[in-house]
Automatic annotation (TrEMBL):
Protein name: Response regulator
Isomerase as UniProt keyword: no
Record PANTHER family: STAGE 0 SPORULATION PROTEIN A HOMOLOG, TRANSCRIPTIONAL REGULATOR-RELATED
SMART domains hit by this protein: LytTR (SM00850), REC (SM00448)
Residue ranges constituting the Response regulatory domain according to the UniProt record: 3-116
Length: 239
């Protein structure tokens, strides 16, 4: 599977290539670019299966969204960026997955596997709208439990355990918050604290350093870290 990287930060490019792409034997890197104009020029005479694309490139006239608008409609992308607020807009294009910095190799590998599966689909299958993933399975008390994303209010972590709270109940599972974060759709869930992920749809209000999340029993107050506050407010405004 051929690919290129477009990110205006050289350190991000090097991390993506050296720590991730080179570990996947079926990825063939055709080039790296820190300038979107140079990437566009390359793609005028070359085709690739996949583009690893940053969104914000403040030193240039176009950003990642503009770049995708200039490309052919069937070009596939994995977005690699620290800005989750662009996720909803970017999915208007042929985006396979979204890697939010910082990301692990495991999360990277899942995104690449998803891209490979998309590319290997027969042409007629690609014309059919894919079934949306609406849930995940977690292990609890020696059984796999299906959790609908729409039913989840928030997740609270304690070291290597996480408790997933729904409107009327909760389920504890042995996993890390980082691993769960990679399973949730970024358009509907957001990390708001080192120990919490919340459903954007279940937020009732935000005040200072707390978030009010709605459950059947009433409003639950979730701590909001200053590290995530700006991004959360931007996501709420766009939503």
């Amino acid at each position: 599977m051929t690919c290129i990287v477009l990110d205006d930060e050289e350190l991000s490019v090097n991390f993506l290539v050296d720590k991730n792409i080179r570990k996947v034997p079926y990825l063939k890197l055709m080039g790296t670019f820190t300038n979107p104009q140079e990437a566009l020029l390359f793609l005028q005479t070359n085709t690739v299966d996949l583009i690893f694309l940053d969104i914000e490139m403040p030193n240039f006239d176009i950003d990642g969204i503009d770049f995708m608008k200039l490309m052919k409609a069937d070009q596939r992308y994995i977005l690699v960026t620290a800005h989750a607020e662009y996720a909803l807009e970017s999915y208007e294009y042929n985006v396979v997955d979204y890697l939010r910095k910082p990301y692990s190799f495991d999360r990277f590998a899942k995104a690449v596997q998803k891209a490979q599966e998309r590319i290997q689909l027969p042409a007629q299958a690609q014309e059919i709208s894919p079934k949306l993933i609406d849930s995940l399975y977690v292990r609890s008390d020696n059984k796999k439990v299906r959790m609908l994303f729409d039913s989840i209010c928030y997740v609270e972590a304690d070291r290597n355990y996480a408790t997933i709270f729904r409107a009327d109940d909760h389920i504890a599972t042995k996993t890390t918050l980082n691993k769960l974060e990679g399973e949730f759709p970024v358009t509907h869930f957001m990390r708001v604290h080192k120990s919490y992920i919340v459903s954007l749809d279940k937020i009732e209000f935000v005040e200072k350093d707390q978030i009010g999340v709605k459950r059947t029993e009433g409003i639950v107050m979730i701590p909001l870290s200053s590290l995530y506050k700006k991004e959360l407010l931007q996501a709420i405004e766009k939503g």
